[in-house]
Structure formats: structure tokens, C-alpha cells
Amino acid sequence: MIRQGDAPGIAFSRRMHSLMVGMIAEARLRKIAHDPNGFNERERGLLAGSKSQIERWKAAVDFAFRRQYAIPMHLEIQHSGVESAVISRHAIIMDMLDGDLRPIIEGRNKTAHGQWVWELNSSETNFKGRAADPMNYLAISRRSEVIDNLAEIVHILIVSEPAFQREFDRLYGKIISLRSAIDGNDYPEFEADIRSSRRR
Question: What's the pLDDT tens digit per position in 82-94?
Fold first, then answer.
């Protein structure tokens, strides 16, 4: 579609691509939550009780840090007395969930509920305004890679604290390297290259 300059087809495909990445993220969390080496049934039940997907991801991270570093539920992690590196990694992961995962999840929900042109309020009783344009192919693809690495960090954290200590910097480094171009600002060049390859 990009090669042919099919603007309606490109717009549709962007929405479907973003929808699929959001669905994969949702499925990935379910897989992580049900790893037999990870959470127990009580923790899984608490996760299932979270209202939104992003809240479930955050709860999974919160439970995993509490489990691996023996932090009681009544204490805030940043005031729990654990070492500063643990607090920093908790904050980094929570920021990534908000900055990298939330846009995909929220975009997936709006697309799945038909909010392609107009955006509705949470109770779907009124319009909030025009829906945002879908992200371009590169922005979606790079966010998908970030989510893959982020999900791996969360999974490792849940099942093995030593592995988390060992692998965090490597996986976070991959995310940082993707971040510089995560908004797909180089898409015009990508599109031009694809179209020129058709002419060749």
C-alpha cells in the first residue's frame, strides 16, 4: 500500500497494525501472569481484579518487586528501605509502562470500539473530539519492539530476581536504543525509499 500510494489503505493498515500490537501486549501479560514459576493464585486473582490493562501491567510489576525484595503491601516501594537501585528500576519500568505501553493499549481500545474519527468519553455518552491520527508504520513497529523487551524485563523480574539483576541493563539498553526514533520521524524517508524501489 505504501509502494502504491494507497492513502486509505495505509490509514486502515496503521489502525490494524496498532490494534494487533495492543492485542499481543494483552496476551503477553496473560502468559506472564500464568507462568507456573511466577505468581501464585492469590496474586493472579488480584491482577485480574485490576480494571484496565495498564493497571494490570503496573500491578504485575508492583507485585513482582514486592515478592522479590520482600516489601510489605502497606509500604510504598520508594519508602520501603530497599536499596536505591531497586527503587530506580521500579520507577524506570513504571515510566516505560506509561510512556511506551499506554499509547498502544489506549489506541487499541479506541480502535476496537470503533473510535476511528471521533473519540468518546469513558462512558461512551458524548464525544470528546476528533480521534488522533494513527501512528505511522515505523512508530508502531518500534513500539512493538520496545514492548517485547519491556515484557521480557517484567517476566524475568517475576520468575527470577538474580536473572532480573543480570538482564535488566541489556534489555533496557535495547529499549533506549529504540527510543531515539520511536515516534517514526524518519517515516517520510522510509516511504520515499519504498516508493522509489517500485519505480526501479
Answer: 999 999 999 999 9
Residue 177: all three cell numbers together: 536504543
Q: Count of residues for the chain? A: 200
**146: which strand partners?**
none
- Kind plus residue range of the DSSP H or E element containing 141: helix 137-159
What torsion do the CA atoms of 178, 24, 118, 6 make, to the nearest 10 degrees?
Answer: 70
142, 149 contact by CB (below 8 A): no
Give residue-wise pLDDT tens across range 8-32.
898 889 888 888 888 888 888 889 8
pTM for the structure as a whole:
0.80
Instruction: State the Cα–Cα distance between residues 56 and 46, nearest whole angstrom.
Output: 9
Identity (one letter) of the amino acid at 180?
A: S
